[in-house]
Amino acid sequence: QTGMFTYDPGFLSTASCQSAITYIDGDKGELLYRGYPIEQLATNCDFMETCHLLLYGELPNPTQKADFTKLVTNHTMVNEQMQFFLRGFRRDAHPMAIMTGLVGALSAFYHDSTDITNPQHREIAAIRLIAKMPTLVAMAYKYTIGQPYMYPKNNLSYAGNFLHMMFATPCEEYVVSPVLERALDRIFTLHADHEQNASTSTVRLCGSSGTNPFAAIAAGVACLWGPAHGGANEACLNMLTDIQKMGGVAKVGEFMEKVKDKNSGVKLMGFGHRVYKNYDPRAKLMQETCKEVLAELGLENDPLFKLAMALEKIALEDDYFVSRKLYPNVDFYSGIVQRAIGIPTPLFTAVFALARTSGWIAQLNEMIGDPEYKIGRPRQLFTGSVKRDVKPIATR
Ligand code: SDX
């Protein structure tokens, strides 16, 4: 019994920690941030309100929201020296390789937010990380396409600033479309936190050693990169593109047979989940956002969206998927909507990391703020050799 929730003993043995931030019911397909259903947050709030909720436990009132947004806005620039880190990468470096380096490097610049045991340091580190991730992701993108970096603009919203830094150039302003800005803001909210997933658990375990917050978040970036986790949105779009090249919807049946053949090693990317054995509520909201953005851009007949819908329909009626309780997850539609906004495929996971930074740092600060916490030390079931003596090499 923890608070109002009761768990069966079997579940308790799998729990890695206690947390009051995010609640998932995988059987019902339910996701709550601090008790609020994701559907209500994605519809009635923006990402700044969601960040405030994750960090402090409550949705902000208008004054709190204005103060929090101003604080974040005033920390969106990064130290000019950060540019020299980028120059060390090849231009074709994967943005997540760059982000893993840049986020950890932040610890070299902000000494008033590196002592994780100091509550003031933790607070300002959270603001700095949330504020600077969009700037770093946009810098990684500009570097790979050989364009100059764009500085953040304080008169733009969080999502609007990211679009500006990504797509404006010194020669031409980027006019932020309110529909795309709102869609991207909602994508951030949908990716903000998700209980003890692989990357959040990585951040917690790393941070439990007392290392600085930037290093712990960099560990989360590295973990999220994997195609079984946050890298699935990039892998899903590549999968859809490949099927489209093979012949599109006409080839879906052939592709699905490959997925069902265990020897093929082919997975339906964007489908399945360790916890959800029902429809991921974020996938439904992502599909709706996808439709809105495609309609705004006059791309209602986008072939990849049509293909994704066809794949989903077939999978939801196919016993292989139904019997295994495999449903679309957050990554199934997120790539299509990001691509429609103009974000290139290799950046999708970096956008996921940008948004998830709010959840990672909220979870890290929750753990460190608990006076009872200790350094993490998972144990193992040993399956190796019993004790034995070393023989001289001549007799081996
Ligand atoms: C994220 O943990 C989180 O909260 C993560 C996340 C977050 O917000 O942090 O939600 C973000 O990572 C979402 C997941 C993104 N990954 C993908 O979309 C990659 C494709 N999905 C799979 O790799 C897989 O579904 C996992 C890794 C997500 C889960 O793997 P599991 O735990 O092995 O899934 P399972 O136990 O439910 O699998 C049951 C069966 C197995 O087959 P059998 O051994 O029973 O014959 O279903 C099969 C699996 O092989 N299966 C799939 C499949 N996912 C599971 N078969 C084909 N395609 C798939 N996508």
TrEMBL record:
Keywords: Acyltransferase, Transferase, Tricarboxylic acid cycle
Reaction(s) this enzyme catalyzes, per UniProt: oxaloacetate + acetyl-CoA + H2O = citrate + CoA + H(+)
Coiled coil: none
Domain of life: Bacteria
UniProt entry tagged with the keyword Amino-acid biosynthesis: no
Gene Ontology molecular function, alphabetical: citrate synthase activity
Pfam families xrefs: Citrate_synt
Pathway: Carbohydrate metabolism; tricarboxylic acid cycle; isocitrate from oxaloacetate: step 1/2
NCBIfam families membership: cit_synth_I, PRK05614.1
Family: Belongs to the citrate synthase family.
PANTHER family: CITRATE SYNTHASE
Protein name: Citrate synthase
Organism: Rhodoferax ferrireducens
